[in-house]
Amino acid sequence: MASFTSPTKRRVPLQPYTPPVHRLTPSGRPMPPIGFDYATAKIPGQGVSMRELRLRGPEMHMRMQGAGDCVFAPSGLQRIVFRIIWPGYTHVEWCRTMPVVAPNAGGAPITRVGLAVQIASTFANYFEKTQYEQPSSADWMISPACVQFKHLYLIALVNTAEGVWQADVALDVI
Length: 174
Known about the structure:
By secondary structure, the protein is of the alpha+beta class. The protein is about 15% helix and about 20% strand. Strands 1, 2, 3, 4, 5, 6 and 7 form a 7-stranded mixed sheet that branches. Strand 6 (about 150-160) and strand 7 (about 165-170) form a beta hairpin. The longest helix is centred in the C-terminal third of the chain and has 19 residues, at about 110-130.
């Protein structure tokens, strides 16, 4: 995976979920991260706007690098557990089961763009709910005056525990 070097974006610290018994996969190794970039990205690993994913949905197919790749095809997985653990909001439990087969496609593996749209929708819902919660730290505070959904960039989906995946996210507040 490419290094993150944006001069305008700030990387959100990934706080990996730790299950009571820590296992990644039956083999004991995590699955590789699934990256998201614009097709025109000059520097890989900088991510895709979640706001744009929500607004354009599948239309992002032409704008995203590897948009049509069936990202979970080799794994045979049907669903994953998607967790959001936002800095300062660890008290907000956000865990959703996410299908990784395409709806209305006879169980075909989901594409990179389909997965990205699902992740962006989940983050939009999380931000809508969490903006009313009191954070334990104001550094990454979710509010209209601080961090907003429109600032989020999806860099990658990371396997942090067995069946559990979390988003690697950056903020662009400029």
